[in-house]
Specification:
Length: 377
């Protein structure tokens, strides 16, 4: 299997320059998706009442047929690289789960992580609630990751350009992520490899980080299992990008306990499943059970997988591939929009370079919409 450095060399030979306007359409597409996201509860995806009166409880609904209007697939984004313009697949696949026909987003509202209200539910005349909102959210989660696994397996089986399972892919959440511009395909691969190399060199997956664990009890898991290696890795990655070890003290705002805890000295150190980049084979291994047997929240799965597999997964502690905004100081974010018209980019105040993706999860969605508005202005 190719190492990160070999992948960088491979991509450098195949795509030697940034196509004109590379990524501009994706920036506009994702900004529009964020601006049009009404943060509505996820709809009930099952065909429950096709033959049953709506007032009658039907027992467990999890195995009912999925409505055609809720069919989910991974939508392949395009940076319009030179390879794509020539009719070839990109070297880095970028996808997100959307409803197949309507292209609606499949994520619950951003504040689901602290309000617990993310999906529609039905209250019956007998007083029962079935399905409950949590079950609705879980079913959409199951459909997202089933679609992701199918998508990744398709590309692994296709083996385009001889890459097979070693081809790189990005999966990010829908409706709450922006593409920041200034990151052509080569830059994305270079940053991925640089994070991997600073983390020790064996990792195949880079996930976004964030300030607060979700679910909150994961903070205890980190204290128990990661102190022997995670602190050193975080320091190494930040040092490699010349980012101060305590950069969070300037930008974190963890004063509202109800939206999620931070450390007493906030650290951007918890895994965030809103963005992940890695080799196809490693991503398939990581998500294998999420669309079938796993019954918890997906972000818990990814955090626990990271803690159990530090040689396979690392985090983007400097936020240069993806910056997560939850519990940041929304009045003074560690990023800003630079440029005019089609030359706009989202710039990091930590590195003075571009940020490839920005995730407005948790309490930061309104701020993300403000950034989207600046990108489209």
């Amino acid at each position: 299997m190719a190492t990160g450095l070999n992948l960088l060399t491979f991509v450098s030979f195949v795509c030697v320059c940034m196509a004109v306007g590379e990524g501009e359409d994706l920036m506009t597409e994702l900004a529009g998706e964020v601006l049009s996201n009404k943060q509505a509860l996820l709809s009930i995806p099952w065909e429950i009442y096709r033959d049953t009166p709506s007032f009658r409880d039907v027992g467990y609904v999890g195995e009912f047929p999925i409505s055609d209007s809720a069919a989910t697939e991974i939508h392949l984004s395009s940076l319009q690289t030179g390879r794509e313009i020539q009719g070839f697949p990109p070297n880095v696949l970028i996808g997100r789960a959307l409803v197949k026909d309507s292209l609606k987003v499949t994520q619950p509202p951003a504040n689901f992580r602290y309000t617990g209200k993310g999906g529609e539910e039905i209250k019956h005349l007998n007083g029962l609630t079935n399905p409950a909102g949590d079950l609705t959210v879980w079913q959409w989660q199951r459909m997202r990751w089933s679609a992701a696994k199918e998508w990744l397996e398709y590309w692994a089986d296709r083996g385009a350009a001889g890459a097979g399972g070693a081809r790189l892919a990005i999966i990010h959440s829908s409706g709450d992520v922006l593409y920041g511009g200034g990151c052509d395909e080569n830059t994305i691969v270079y940053r991925y490899n640089r994070i991997v190399n600073a983390s020790g060199g064996s990792q195949k997956i880079v996930m976004a980080a964030e300030l607060s664990p979700w679910p909150a009890d994961l903070g205890w898991s980190y204290n128990l299992t990661s102190s022997s290696w995670a602190e050193g890795r975080r320091a190494d990655v930040l040092s490699d990008f010349s980012v101060p070890d305590n950069w969070e003290s300037t930008y974190a705002n963890c004063t509202e306990p109800s939206v999620g805890p931070c450390n007493s000295s906030p650290k951007y150190m918890y895994a965030n499943s809103g963005f992940m980049m890695g080799t196809i084979d490693a991503l398939i291994d990581m998500i294998a059970d999420l669309g079938t047997t796993y019954s918890g929240w997906d972000n818990r799965w990814f955090n626990e997988y990271y803690l159990k597999n530090p040689a396979t997964v690392t985090l983007d502690y400097a936020g240069i591939l993806s910056m997560s905004l939850h519990n940041m100081n929304l009045g003074s974010l560690p990023l800003e929009v630079n440029g005019t018209n089609t030359g706009k980019t989202i710039q990091s105040k930590l590195t003075n370079g571009s940020i490839c993706f920005v995730h407005g999860n948790g309490n930061s969605f309104a701020a993300l919409q403000g950034i989207a508005g600046e990108l489209k202005a």
